[in-house]
Fold these 2 entries.
Entry 1:
Amino acid sequence: MTARVRWHARWVVPVATPPIADGTVITEGEHIVWIGERRQAPLGGRDEDLGDAILTPGLVNAHTHLDLTVLRGFLSDLPFFDWVRTLTRAIATLDDGDLLASASLGIAEGLLGGVTTFADTAPNTAAFDAMRALRVRGVCYREVFGPDSKDASKHLATLADQVAAMRRQETELVRVGVSPHAPYSVSDALYAAVAEFARRERLPVAVHIAEGADESRLVAQGDGDFAGFLQGRGIATPARGSEPLEVIERAGLLQRDTLLIHAVRVSAPAIVRIANAGCGVAHCPASNAKLGHGIAPLLALLRAGVQVGLGTDSMASNDRMDLLEEARLAVLAQRAASGGHDAVSAQQAFRLATLGAAEALGLDEAIGSLEVGKQADIAAFALPQGPRENVYDALIFGPRPRTLQAVVAGRERMRNGIVHDFDLANAARVEDAARRLQRWRESQTKV
Ligand SMILES: [Zn+2]
């Protein structure tokens, strides 16, 4: 007999159906078995009375790089090319233990904000190992880089080995995918090889695409900072299309199992093709704003029927692992840019942080909403002070609500600020690694 729990709260927000005042969700083991008004809830099992709280699906972070949590604040105000170059060199000075601690801290911060699912891209297994240890849900897209087409088959062979090793350790909660990084770091030949590999192995794909002006310039004109860098390494930079999306489209990556990260600079015709292909989009408004990349056309993507989820991106470009704040920013940025007072609603924004992200990741049959039969991935927030007629307004526009609990597959992972299985030594190690990075930077500027 699996444990049966009756979760009661002032509000239950199932997302796929209207909010329920004085609601109850009943879970049995890892599944949701009942949802409705408390006065109608069947008896039996343990009662978890959350009181003046909002019970929601666990939040789904559609894009992050957990291993980079240690870089918070380290790269502020750099132009994107310098940001990428410094990040790459800085992270190379850290060891596996540092990266594991960094990823663990990132997950802990996510749980403290109600995030229960993480879609992570990384060239290492730090996030993959940390997710399994902390028993959260996730997709780990193994990153591959290689701007020189001559090296494509070599990079693919390495990727195939890395993915095979990870797949042997896949769990019900943590799955593996692949991520050819971005047009300025991946050749057309490597994109095509990864696309073919992913199809053959039935792996989901994530690509950083159409993020900043430098990338668009490299693709459309073959010049700019990235082009100069590549040419310096003997790599030709011919124009590859009128906009970045064409590069992955030609490689066969515009398809259902591909997650497009950012999609800031996409034309109206490209948005139609994204919608027709059934690709998901990870919208990262804070990262895009902080790096000066602009505001992604969220309204146009949603109107076209694209499945969009919210992502925090890494702490190197955000610096907060806070999906509710991401949702708030998504609304505010679209309203500011469009001049429409109701351009994106609080309800729509909350959907982007839950069911929308689950759809974008292809996980919506299991998570993203509170529905009978789905996984018991749950977040509980203290009801913030303020207007309470509309619970979505309270979640998105109200004061940042304190997270009371985070539950993954029926298992409590965080309660009242305590993250289960999280060793506080991780936080100390990240502090230490951050100090070493600071010294490394000082040594760099001396020469
Ligand atoms: Zn990213």
Note: Residues 425-446 form the longest helix (22 residues).
Entry 2:
Amino acid sequence: MKKNDEIELEIIDNGINLEGIAREENKVVFIPGAIKGEKVRARIIKVNNSFCIGKVEEILTPSPDRVEPFCSVYKRCGGCCGQHISYNKQLEIKKELVKNTLDKQKVNYAGIDDVIGMGVPLNFRNKAQYPVRKTVEGVSKIGFYAKRSHDIIENEECFIQDQEIDRLSKEVFKLLLLKGFEGYDEKENKGDIRHILIRRGYHTGEIMVVIVVNNKNIFDDVRMEEIIHILKEDDNIKTIVLNYNGSKTNEILGKEEKVIYGDGYITDYIGDKRYYISSKSFFQVNTIQAEVLYDTLKEKLNLKGNETLFDLYSGVGSIGIYLSDNVKQVYGIEIEPQAVDMANMNMRLNNVTNAEYIAGSVEEKIEEYEKRNIHPDVIVVDPPRKGLDLDSIEYIIKFAPEKIGYVSCSPATFARDLKMLEPYYNIGVVTPVDLFPNSEHIEDVVVLTKKK
Ligand SMILES: C[S@@+](CC[C@H](N)C(=O)[O-])C[C@H]1O[C@@H](n2cnc3c(N)ncnc32)[C@H](O)[C@@H]1O
């Protein structure tokens, strides 16, 4: 097989990015856009020692699960990768992927549920962060990055974003251009506006606008006053924040911020708990499914009311506060200080008096509880994609709680970490919850119980 060869391939599986997988000449061929069971004619666009990448030229035998993508820029845009697959099939594939990952690591778990999907898997994202870029022709554009590049794909309507967020992001963009601001030039590290980030409370409708700028002088630019004046006409816009990011980096937000309108946060509900959310604090992007996720965790934990619970990687305290009525005491650790401020405010907002949140990394701060002689009955972990680090796992094992609730956004690190906890804990039934329809991502929740 060499580059530009056109070959007929049987798709034998779907991979972690929902791409089709075939085998040819003892090599794995990854074919984005193909579905298990299909026969395709593909052109080889990349050849590596162990694998190749193919591009679908023609679908010879379509899968019964193939559907027409609902978005006109789907093929080019990097925002979604599953729109060509029926939603039920996406859920089936995601379940298979989680199961295969656990089985590959030889994790001994009690079973896996079907993925809990969304009723209507559209317009669910409560947060959009659109790059704003200046092209070589000098035109400023807003959109998603194209697949595997930083070219901007403009789109009239994005069907995964909250519709109001989608509309407003374009309005803010136009307003910024009208006032003479320009998009960011990534190559030269020049220009004014890097990203427009908008959050909207699903239940409250409250909106936060964050404009990420490449030049700190914009913090005091009078044109921003004019922009505030126009935007605040919309009663739902509760706060506007300028964030400065001057580094050559893929990270969206920089460290420094200036709140130019409102308090710097909005609120939203998950179930009956209300949460303050700021620009830098993590909050699940799919509010409806976050509630399903937290309820699944709650049900699996089967709390009695007398437990001491650690909420590790706690964000704005969402899980700990959600469970606070069902336990004696909550202790949370979160690395982002702004999120910890929100967690403390969220306790007051919900009249929660049995929780305490501290700022710092889990690996460094967890020993404080040992020093304070605090022993957890339950530890809930909800780490970022890189999963738990070894120090934290050792501490969790040392604390020996009766139960561990593990919420994960990465099947690979989830399986790795469960394997390390397995000698000490029985691993229950894994429940995948789909918070990210039409993408490759999936959340998993499981409860581990201490071996006798
Ligand atoms: C997946 S989010 C979960 C947040 C929260 N549990 C929720 O449901 O909204 C992971 C959180 O871990 C935080 N984080 C990342 N690395 C950390 C570390 N080493 N120690 C503590 N928190 C960390 C991130 O800032 C983020 O808020």
Note: The chain has a mean pLDDT of 96.
